[in-house]
Known about the structure:
Elements: H1 2-46, E1 79-91, E2 101-122, E3 125-148, E4 151-176, E5 183-202, E6 209-231, E7 234-254, E8 257-283
Antiparallel strand pairs: 1-2, 1-8, 2-3, 3-4, 4-5, 5-6, 6-7, 7-8
Amino acid sequence: xxxxxYILVLIGMVLSSTALLHAGEQDSTVVAHxxxxxxxxxxxxxxSEPDTIVNKRGFNRKKYSRGLKNYLLIPKKQWIAGLTxxxxxxxxxxxxxxxxxxxxxxxxxxxxxxPFLGYFIKDNECIGIKLxxxxxxxxxxxxxxxxxxxxxxxxxxxxYLGETFSASIFHRSYIGIDRNKxxxxxxxxxxxxxxxxxxFVRGTDESLKNTKTTxxxxxxxxxxxxxxxxxxxxxxxxxxxxxxxxYGTIKQTTxxxxxxxxxxxxxxxxxxxxxxxxxxxxxx
Length: 284
C-alpha cells in the first residue's frame, strides 16, 4: 500500500508540472499576441491619412506634431513647364502728379521673360532649370525743375538701354493645404548666374558721352510663394524674393575708354518689391 501511495504522489507531481508548463506557454502566446497588436497599432498610428505626405523621422530626431497636414499636391515623376512674364510702360504725358516739374518729357518700358522646366523627384518636391531675359529702356528728352526763383535747373537728352540674361537651377518644396489638391504653398531655393550690359548716353554732338557698363553676378536666393490649380493640369503661382546672397563684378567704359571696375557683394533679408513673379505652369 505504501508503494501505491508513492506512485500516486509521483503521478500528481508530473500532472501538475505539465499543467504549469501549458499555462506558461499560453501566457507567453498571449503576451506575444499583445506585443504584435501593439506594434500593429503603433504602425497604424504613424501612417498618415490618405492623400497626405508622411513626415519621416531621421536618426535620433524628435518628431514635433503641430497639427499641420501636408496633403499631396503634385505627385512624383511629373513634369512642369511654365513662364513668368511682365511688362510695364511709363509716359510722362499720362502723369499729372509732378506739380514742381515743367516741360517733363520721359518715356520708358521694362520687360522680363522667364521660362522654366522642372521634374518632381518626390511627392511635392521638384528640381528644375530656369532661363531669364530682361530689357529696360528709358528716354528723357527734357526735364525742368522750378521750385522758386533761386532753385531752378534743366536736364535733358538722356537715354538708357539695358539687357540682362540669366540662367539658374532651383529646388521647390510644396505644401498642400487642402484635400482637393487645389491650393498650396511652396518654398523655392534658387542659384542663379546673370550677365548683362547697359548704355547711358547723355548730351549731343561734341558734348556726347556714351557710358557702357558690363555686369556679372551670381546669387543664391530664397523665394517663397503660393500656387492655385485653375484646371487639372494648369496652375498659376506668385512668388516673392525675401532673402539672398550675391556677388558680382562691374566694368565701365566711357566713350570706348576704360574708366573703372569694381566688385560688389551683399546679403538681402527683406521683401524685394522688384522680385515679384507671377506665372503659369503646365503639369504633364
